[in-house]
Amino acid sequence: MAENIFYKIYEWYISRNLDFDKMPKHVAIIMDGNRRYSKIQGDIDVIKGHEIGVDTLEKVLDWVIELGIEIITVYAFSTENFNRPPHEVNGLMDLFVKNFKRLVNHKKIHKNEVKVKVVGKTELLPENVKEAIEEAEKATAHYNKRLFNIAIGYDGRLEIVDSIKKIVNDVEEGKINKDDIDEELVSKNLYTEGLDDPNLIIRTSGEERLSGFLLWQSSYSELYFCDSLWPELRKVDFLRAMRAYQERERRFGI
Q1: Smallest Cα–Cα separation from 129: which of 163, 166, 157, 101?
Q2: For this structure, is 81 an active site residue?
C-alpha cells in the first residue's frame, strides 16, 4: 500500500513537470520481457506472460491518449519469432485473433477515434489471424485522430529489401527511372508508407538494441531503454521516458 502511494506521488511529480506541447507525436515500443517474466513468476506458462503483456499494452494505450500522443507503434511479433516453440507461436496467434476481434467493438478505441493498422508481412500469418486483423482495421479505418500500429511478422531488413524490390519493379515497368530514387521514394514503399517516423523508441527489459525494429525510420529517433520487463511496466516508467525525451536536444544529424 505504501509503495503504491509513493508511486502515485511520483507519477504526479513527473507529470506536473512535463510539457504537453512537447510530447513526441509518434512513440514506438519494443515490448520485450514477456518470456523472462514468465520464468521469474515461478516458470508459469509462457502464454500467460504474453497475456499479461497484452494487459500492459492496454494501459500504455490509456497513457498515450492521456498524454496526447498521436501515433504509437508496437513490435508484437517478428519474422524470427516464427522459430519459437510451436506451443508459444500457436498461443500467440490465438492471442492475436482474440484481441483483434476485441478491438472491433472496443469502447476506448472508438471513443478516442483510434485507427488500428498492422505493418509487416501479414501473408505469413494464419488465415484466422489475417481475418481478425482485417476486421479490426475495417472497423477503425475511418478514424484519423490517433493511430495504433502493430508490427506483426515484421523485420526491418526485410522491409527495406521489399521496398527495393517494389522500386526495381517500377523501374523495369518504366513507371520511374533510377534518378527518381531518393529517400522519400524508399519511405513510400515501406510497410509504414505515409507514416511519420518515430520521435521516440522505447525498449523494455534492459536490452539496448533495436532488434530489426524500424531500421530505416529510426535514423533520427531518440532511444530510451527501460529496465522493467514489459508485463511489469508502470506508468512512472513511461513518464520517465517522456521526461527524458523532453530533456534531450534533438539535432537531426547537425
Answers
A1: 101
A2: yes
Of these residues, 4, 17, 62, 81, which one is catalytic? 81
Q: What is the CA radius of gyration of the chain?
A: 19
Residue-wise pLDDT tens digits, 136-161? 999 999 999 999 999 999 999 999 99
The 10 Å CB-count burial string (b at 16+, else e) for 139-151 is bbeebeebbbbbb
CA-wise closest residue to 191 among 148, 167, 147, 160: 160
Q: Where are the domains of the chain?
A: 2-18+25-247
Query: Of all helices (H) and strands (E), which one includes residue 223?
Result: strand 222-225
Grid cell for residue 29: 515500443
What is the CATH code of the structural domain delimited by 2-18+25-247? 3.40.1180.10
Catalytic position from the list 32, 34, 149, 199: 32
What are the pLDDT digits (tens) for 50-59? 999 999 999 9
- Residue 32 known to be catalytic: yes
